Here is the input.
Amino acid sequence: MAAAAMSCSAFAGPLCKSGVGRTCTLYTKYSEDGDVVYEGLSEGQLLNSLIDQADLDCGDTGDRRLRAYRELRDTASSHWWQTTFDLKHRSLPALPMLIYFLYVGLFVFVTVGVYPHIFVDCRGQKCLLYNLSVPVQLVTGAMFFLLTFRTDLCYSRWWEGRVHWKLLDIATTNIVLNSIMAMGNNNLTKAVARWAIAYPLIVKAHIRKDGDKKLRDGLRKVLVEGEIVNVMRSRHRPNHVLTQMTCIVQQAVDTQAMTLMWMSQLTSDISNLQLYFAGVDRIAGSPMPFAYTSHSRTFMMIWLLAVPLSIVHDLEWLTIPVSVLIGYCILGIEGIADEIENPFGKDINDLDLDAIVRSCTGGLLQCVDTIESIEDDVALW
Amino acid sequence: MAAAAMSCSAFAGPLCKSGVGRTCTLYTKYSEDGDVVYEGLSEGQLLNSLIDQADLDCGDTGDRRLRAYRELRDTASSHWWQTTFDLKHRSLPALPMLIYFLYVGLFVFVTVGVYPHIFVDCRGQKCLLYNLSVPVQLVTGAMFFLLTFRTDLCYSRWWEGRVHWKLLDIATTNIVLNSIMAMGNNNLTKAVARWAIAYPLIVKAHIRKDGDKKLRDGLRKVLVEGEIVNVMRSRHRPNHVLTQMTCIVQQAVDTQAMTLMWMSQLTSDISNLQLYFAGVDRIAGSPMPFAYTSHSRTFMMIWLLAVPLSIVHDLEWLTIPVSVLIGYCILGIEGIADEIENPFGKDINDLDLDAIVRSCTGGLLQCVDTIESIEDDVALW
Amino acid sequence: MAAAAMSCSAFAGPLCKSGVGRTCTLYTKYSEDGDVVYEGLSEGQLLNSLIDQADLDCGDTGDRRLRAYRELRDTASSHWWQTTFDLKHRSLPALPMLIYFLYVGLFVFVTVGVYPHIFVDCRGQKCLLYNLSVPVQLVTGAMFFLLTFRTDLCYSRWWEGRVHWKLLDIATTNIVLNSIMAMGNNNLTKAVARWAIAYPLIVKAHIRKDGDKKLRDGLRKVLVEGEIVNVMRSRHRPNHVLTQMTCIVQQAVDTQAMTLMWMSQLTSDISNLQLYFAGVDRIAGSPMPFAYTSHSRTFMMIWLLAVPLSIVHDLEWLTIPVSVLIGYCILGIEGIADEIENPFGKDINDLDLDAIVRSCTGGLLQCVDTIESIEDDVALW
Amino acid sequence: MAAAAMSCSAFAGPLCKSGVGRTCTLYTKYSEDGDVVYEGLSEGQLLNSLIDQADLDCGDTGDRRLRAYRELRDTASSHWWQTTFDLKHRSLPALPMLIYFLYVGLFVFVTVGVYPHIFVDCRGQKCLLYNLSVPVQLVTGAMFFLLTFRTDLCYSRWWEGRVHWKLLDIATTNIVLNSIMAMGNNNLTKAVARWAIAYPLIVKAHIRKDGDKKLRDGLRKVLVEGEIVNVMRSRHRPNHVLTQMTCIVQQAVDTQAMTLMWMSQLTSDISNLQLYFAGVDRIAGSPMPFAYTSHSRTFMMIWLLAVPLSIVHDLEWLTIPVSVLIGYCILGIEGIADEIENPFGKDINDLDLDAIVRSCTGGLLQCVDTIESIEDDVALW
Amino acid sequence: MAAAAMSCSAFAGPLCKSGVGRTCTLYTKYSEDGDVVYEGLSEGQLLNSLIDQADLDCGDTGDRRLRAYRELRDTASSHWWQTTFDLKHRSLPALPMLIYFLYVGLFVFVTVGVYPHIFVDCRGQKCLLYNLSVPVQLVTGAMFFLLTFRTDLCYSRWWEGRVHWKLLDIATTNIVLNSIMAMGNNNLTKAVARWAIAYPLIVKAHIRKDGDKKLRDGLRKVLVEGEIVNVMRSRHRPNHVLTQMTCIVQQAVDTQAMTLMWMSQLTSDISNLQLYFAGVDRIAGSPMPFAYTSHSRTFMMIWLLAVPLSIVHDLEWLTIPVSVLIGYCILGIEGIADEIENPFGKDINDLDLDAIVRSCTGGLLQCVDTIESIEDDVALW
Here is the structure.
């Protein structure tokens, strides 16, 4: 032990010297005798519960919903009708549509039903509102540009979110794989694997602003009670995990379980994790500029309110279905932008974070399998 | 052998210590006496079958279809007519068009043939549907923006898929080239080359959700039976290949067939493979947001249904050909987006994955040629 | 001391040889006896004031305004009305709108109220201005394209600013974390942490062209008086901080508090800081090309002035509300572009730099906590 | 020699051991006595011919055409007229325009000249085709969006091609510069330089599918006959060059003419070459999706055929010039997309590959100058 | 000297062996006795003139014009009027506008003034040109798309130019800072600094195709006569500077003034310089494809010529002001694209290269200050 401490101070950082710090609770546990005693349940129980969960959830590689959608696409015709007629998953701002419907109905009732001689059937005189279709058409282009550009920008946010989340997934897998290559089947390897599995859970909760209770439940399958407590009371939970991993890596270097070259590789993997987290966080944390969203919505409202005014003279009662259809189409475009602006929510058009996290966990568990199998071989020897 | 094992434990990871693990079946075979006995067929037969296949398939550098198209472009005028009149390869959503044709025919038959006095020839009265062209024109811009933006986004997905697949190709070539530079003509080099050739096949099957049988047949030309079995029963097949390659690299380092510098290079190549696979996978696995696809399609349907209503008063029987032509043009735009949204399918507008895989295999086989030629020289000495 | 100087000259740069240079005031202080005497207040007081500030400001992870907005989004309906009716935060170029309103009012008063027989009610003759709606409609598309493209480009500047600022945040965190890993709880680590906390403050002041007094007040919480004086009189303040950090790193290498590998890591982190600063600086320092802004604005002005002329014949008194609404919608689009072109200003639609800086400081203080906790453990030993 | 072989096997790859392999013909030549005997002409003759060529071709730094265009721009007014009236270099799909002209002429002759009472002058009855302008206007927007988006995408391909080709240029220069820094004036340096000069020639021929004869002629100025034969019969010529370079680098390491650090740098430069080649190759090898090109062209054809139908009633004989002008403008947009989709062709709007290659060669020859000058100095000693 | 030469040949490249080569004139000067004798003026004079220049020019951190514009923006209302009414800096293609004005005037004079009965007041007959507004409106959208897309692409070129120029600036600063860290206050450091200050000047002259005389004058403040002569007669001046820097770095390694790690860092900085230069060069050297510019301009010309024809029937004499205003707006859009396509020119909308170069020089001089201050400290010892 003393020799290890010395060699440690010789070529690694000084953090391992203290080794009992509050932040590194986990890691000091290993330093006692190279083994771990968990408060709640044993290491074997932990990993078993992980594998059970994987057999239930991720045996099919997750992403069920996406795959279901993808499969639909391959049978082209049914896909066609489903996307066109499916009611549940489309963007449908129900309340604004209802209000708009009432407004149109009332307006047409008044103009056509009550005062037709003023608005519709004017007997040689100029009807009120007659020429409103000209200015409405004039600004229509501007509003549509604004709406579709906004949709386009929101899609690029959605895709960027998807890309960074996938990279986060890969980076965690890389960390576990590299740990296995560097240290073999080792308690420290398992610790890294457990923190790597916990990371997407914690990031998900951080981004969705989930309640502490839900996160605590999720973590209980991978972390022990003391670790969870430390996670819950840290200032910035995702960073806490990264700090823990770095602690473990340095511990491994100190006990010569890992060469310096692998340490450099793992440090860079951990720094990549932070980078991808930043990519995810800036999308979740920076909505479109308020002025953009608010002005394009106000413009749309003014336009929609003007539409029945501009067509009532020509279409009379037909104004109601026509306006409502137009309202549905335009509000729907706005709805798409709204749905996909923040891709980390919980509705159907958002990224299925739960499935991705599960798939990610499944990938990591394959690595754990690798460790187990090597261990078995060793056991047979 | 014992010395090698010791030196191995000194500066490489511990995985090589066990060396008989289930995951590393392949690699332990080499460790016996530096040579390999395959279950099914000998190494020479394997490589010969590869070269035969290459002579048949990739002697012309693959990509036949793309080249055919490209050559057409150079003879400009024929290209012009071909792209304009070619019937087979264009986007043509046949069923929706048929239904739309029936709808238009029926509608015009009713309005013009049966009740002309209501809709068309109204004798001084306002015709029903007369003024519908105004609201249809009003929203036309919005629908076209939405459609073309979607096509644009789909094209960027298609291109991104192409880029990442090409990078995957290069990364596999790099791995083989670097293995040859690092280890020369060696059984481990051949093993890396075989796994590198298998990788695109496995990724292709993973992405297309091909059946196991087809993949098994493809792999039989490069892998031996035991390896194939391991591939088939792994949780995540592409990752399995990467793990195998890392095993071989570490084995090479342990037996001092490879310097540490080359090991670092190959580790980074393998990690690049994973990155490019992620790029391919996220395009195959994340279709456009459902709300986007579904709303733009519904909007288009509503618009198409309204078109004959808005022109029947002016065009009467001409409404039928005009509506059908408009329907063809608009449904075709939608069809392009549909075709290229997932570039990894099997129809003509998708990337010709088979050809790319074949071309990739051809490139790798040139490396194998290099090995062979060096070997021959040695044999002549 | 002499020995240290020699070892220093052996493998590190020569800057540390002189060691008393004006630029490196801070760093020579440490070299005396490994401890620091500050002019104004002690190290402990400095860090305590930091932590107090953090408890007040960043205990809630900052970004209050963004989070408030984000939370609104999750309660969809209220969000809808807020973005539509909120008056305070939208883009509203008040003065131009007022002038436009007066112009429209005056114009309509003259044409409809005073000379109706010339402009509106022309008794069989061609009215003056009658056909102006045709050319106005002709160029409407061009103006809208120009406006929305400009808005789009401005959004991409806004987002790029956000991305680079976030990366700056991460890079400072990385420097502090890596310093802790490399040197443990050490005076040099604290110095790096203090400069890292000062960096975003200085960049913010540099970019916003804040007065010196404000910056000086902000810095007083992290830097001592002598350091602040040096910062204030340097030619390029952000670069001054980077030079200071490099000095400290080299000092650490000379006194063997840091290995060469960590030095290489920290040098690369510091060079990243410069890169991200450049990203921020080029957005703050390069407005859109003058010709672009000015021509699109002039085009818009001409168009807006022509609108009432083109509709007054048809709409008469209605021209006033219609023109004003159109003016609001179009000026608003221009206003969005104006608001978000430079995302580092102080109004509501700009990035909340203060909150981001505070959140960044909070993240860094967690690192300081880590140091403290290790120190406490050591103290208990 | 024996000692060199041994040291070689000690720290470099095993490829150099064989050293006489078919692939490495060139490189074994140097290993005999450190000098080279070329089949055709001496080293001096080779480099002299290179310099002569450079004095003729690249003394003016190449890119003549681009510079001519750029200079035109600076004299703004003449540039204006040249771009507007220049006949030679614009996009002008001549055959389709001729056919369109004939179609319009025939159609107008029939409708206006032969059957005016049906189509034009209908005496109170509804003219046939009268209302066709409404549906044509309806879909005009969609077609224009599709066309200009396609042009936009093609431009981005053109620019990406330009970027990657420039990077390829830089990477070859880097290889030569680094070789000189690493090895000085040396036969191996000259060999690397010659292959680096050959690389752009070979890539150009590969991408343009030039005939073998042309390539052979071009290569004769830089490579000797044996090398050319090997290039011509390799499966993948660009990769063949990269393999040759790697061989030379390894040879240099074996004979200790190069340190390991420079070897690592050169290996990374060579791998960059491959990356940039991939960037160029994927643009040359992946035309736009067939469905995209073909549908947008068909849509355009339908629209153009419908234009005279929709305006003949109003414009009568004027239909001919108007339709032809419209046809020219629209076919021209299509023509731009067609011209720049593949930027590596031979017409005026493509990248002037020949000039870029020549400029690239000129830059490399400056490096050769450097070698020569050092050699002269040595000779004077 | 002999010992240095030997150690040099041992671990660095061989270039330093010759040491008197034409290319490395500068660097051999240092190798004599570690000091330099300049032809024209002493080192002190050189640096003093630099600092004087900096006090005059860059004391205010350069970028005066940009800052003036930026400050205007902060006082929103004045900014509004300035951008709208400012006459000097907007895009205004004067000659084309004049010609267009004459054309419109002549055309209206003929049609309305001379032959009104044919074109305007047709007494029951169809007027010639009456219906031309329909086809003009038909293609208006296409032309506007083309124009604004081109403006958009040109803006992205402008921004990319800005980004790369800023990166070039940073890379030169990095080289100087790293030299100081690596070598301290040293003649070689000063030489690197002087070449780094010369680099932006030379790149600017290269890109703007400035005359040799102007460049020579600019360089006289940083380089000595012999160096300037070498720069002027090199084939590729920017590359010449990079070669000189590499020479100095290698010299420093040979004389053990720099460790190998710093050499690797500086080599990578120099290679970055080349990369950013390439980014700048490809924008300056590749104008938009000729067919794009020329067709969009011709299309615009045809459209502008057709505008008065299409509105003269309705607007009569009003055609003149209306056409001229339309012409101004549309030609102005074209003018923006023209102005910003090449951002490295000399007019107001281009990047203010002179100011950026001056600011860059100012940043570098701060580094020189640092050297000086250290030197002073040493002098005081």
